[in-house]
Design a protein that fits this description.
The structure is a single chain. Helices cover 44% and strands 15% of the residues. By secondary structure, the chain is an alpha/beta fold.
């Protein structure tokens, strides 16, 4: 297991500055955004057709001992706004082609969410069973939009030697292990998950139990935490649409690893990942509104590196 970084949080820095910042933290692998929702200026899709630029980029990373753990293009290729859907789908395809050229095996994305009909203007996420309208919406979404798109997109990825790691995220059709496995069954083995425990915690899902259920469908892992606030949950529950900046009144907020759940959880989480055959990157994603990027990154890296080293020593001892 190794600690990495999703560089979107350092988008304001140049690539050289990013490298200078992460190496002292013990981070030697990066996840790079290519477009759609995350903005990241370090890797550009137009370099697909600029061989010299791509070669220069790869060489810079290699010279610094930095590898690429994955490319990210979190988007909504199923958006009812057809122009936006086409843009996001095109970005995802280009990202797969770029991953192929860079020798990167994993692209991180969202599953997307359609509207409730061909005439919709906005996505419609309907995770409730009643009134019966919602069941009809879900049936239409999966049969007419979700499965047809992902069968084709998974085949495209597989043809180019790339796999797509879907981040299970409420607001999109894939948001938990059940919906993840449903999509994988329909689209095939080129589709798996990017496991971000922060999105599991607030849904009441136990991340370690979920990892066991997903097994080899775990393609990638984001390292991000969530702090639950019972004082608000007991009044309003966990479904919370207030802005993330309203920390005091929210039922939960995203936190730097270690500030939502302690080292015991993260040790167990990493061990469980290894049990199901995942022994790759823990890609730090910073969305902690109570910490600066610098503080959150340094604390997350120190916390995770300590646990990874401890787990490594255990393996050596048992061997």
């Amino acid at each position: 297991m190794k600690v990495g970084l999703f560089t979107a949080l350092l988008a304001r820095l140049s690539l050289d500055e990013v490298i200078q910042k992460i190496k002292p933290l013990g981070i030697h692998t990066v996840e790079l955004g290519t477009g759609n929702y995350p903005g990241d200026p370090h890797l550009k899709l137009e370099w697909l057709h600029q061989a010299s630029k791509l070669k220069e980029f790869k060489q810079k990373l290699e010279d610094e001992g930095i590898t690429i753990s994955g490319l990210s293009c979190h988007g909504n290729p199923l958006h009812p706004n057809k122009k936006l859907a086409q843009l996001h789908a095109a970005t995802s395809k280009k990202t797969i082609l770029l991953a192929e050229k860079l020798g990167v095996k994993t692209v991180v994305d969202f599953s997307g969410c359609p509207g409730d009909s061909e005439n919709s203007k906005y996505p419609n996420w309907s995770p409730t069973a009643w009134p019966p309208d919602f069941q009809e919406i879900l049936k239409w979404q999966w049969e007419k939009k979700v499965i047809p798109y992902w069968i084709k997109h998974a085949k495209f990825a597989e043809d180019h030697g790339v796999r797509v790691a879907i981040e299970m995220h409420p607001g999109f059709v894939v948001y938990n292990p059940e919906t993840m496995l449903r999509l994988r069954e329909a689209a095939g083995p080129a589709v798996g998950c990017n496991f971000d425990p922060s999105h599991m915690f607030w849904q009441g899902i136990d991340p370690c139990t979920a990892v066991r259920k997903l097994g080899d469908a775990v393609f990638y892992v984001h390292a991000k935490d969530t702090r639950m606030y019972d004082v608000n949950i007991k009044v309003n529950g966990v479904v919370d649409a207030k802005p993330y900046s309203d920390e005091k009144n929210r039922s939960w907020i995203f936190r730097t690893v270690g500030y939502g759940h302690d080292a015991d959880f993260w040790c167990d989480f990493i061990s469980t990942l290894q049990m199901v055959g995942y022994d790759d990157v823990l890609s730090i994603e910073h969305e902690d509104s109570l910490m600066s990027v610098e503080e959150g990154l340094s604390k997350a890296a120190a916390f995770l590196n300590q646990i990874v080293i401890k787990e490594r020593l255990k393996e050596m001892w048992w061997a």
